[in-house]
Amino acid sequence: MKPFATIVLVMCIYLSGSDSAGLNGKSVIFPTETDNSFVRLNAPHFTSLTAFTVCFRAATEATRPFSLLSYATSYSHNELLILHVNKTQLYVLLGSSEDRFYVPEMNSLLRHICVNWESKGGEITVWVNGRRSVQKIGGKGRVVRGSGQFFLGQEQDSVGGRFDKKQSFVGEITDVNMWDRVLKPNEIELISQGCYSDGGNIIDWGSTTFTPGGNVIIEDNNDCTL
């Protein structure tokens, strides 16, 4: 009989307030509901966006509202907010524009989610595991302003703060990337399958520095598809 293989689990707890290099091959774990646990993604400054695609993998067993990605500026704390209201409703907020999508139920299995938008026609589309939703119209003619802050784990009610633990994310999130364009359907399908190696030019999970705070755990995501 062959001996059992030894499995080594690598887990790192990052110190609050210290900037670190990218998160390639890593997952961010938010183990508990708090009002002080977060990861700030230090994206490069941009003037404004008239289109974007943001993608990530996430898993949670939470049934209450929680923020998946929060981008706030001095003009609006909901400059861009991707919020799960319950297990099957995803809200995309662009300033005063709010669109609701009914999506497959969130659970403890990692799923790939993308949201894309373009200003000219205002089309917003949500993709789950490479399959797209019905298109909706929101934020037509507006821009996403630059010089803001991106946060995982919390919804910002002011730039960089005023967190509410009842909207905090509890679970795992990884592979967060953002582009300043609408990705093509075949690109999103490849990304969902782990076959697209280029990170976003706004947020690149592999190279964008990040600043953690509170009770945040970083560990290998052990996803052989990536």
Structure report:
The protein has 226 residues and is mainly beta. It has one domain (13-19, 30-218): Jelly Rolls (Sandwich). The chain contains one helix and 18 strands. It has one helix spanning 185-192, and strands at residues 11-13, 26-30, 38-41, 48-49, 51-59, 66-72, 80-86, 89-94, 97-102, 111-118, 123-128, 131-132, 136-137, 144-145, 149-152, 171-179, 210-213, 217-220. Strands 1, 2, 5, 10, 11, 12, 13, 16 and 18 form a nine-stranded antiparallel β-sheet that branches. The protein has a seven-stranded antiparallel β-sheet with strand order 9-8-7-6-15-3-17, with no helix packed on it. Strand 10 (111-118) and strand 11 (123-128) form a beta hairpin. The longest helix is centred in the last third of the chain and has 8 residues, at 185-192. 39% of the residues are buried. Mean pLDDT is 89; it is low at 1-15.
Summarize the structure.
The chain is built from one helix and 18 strands. By secondary structure, the chain is mainly β. It starts with 10 loop residues before the first strand and ends in a 6-residue tail after the last strand.
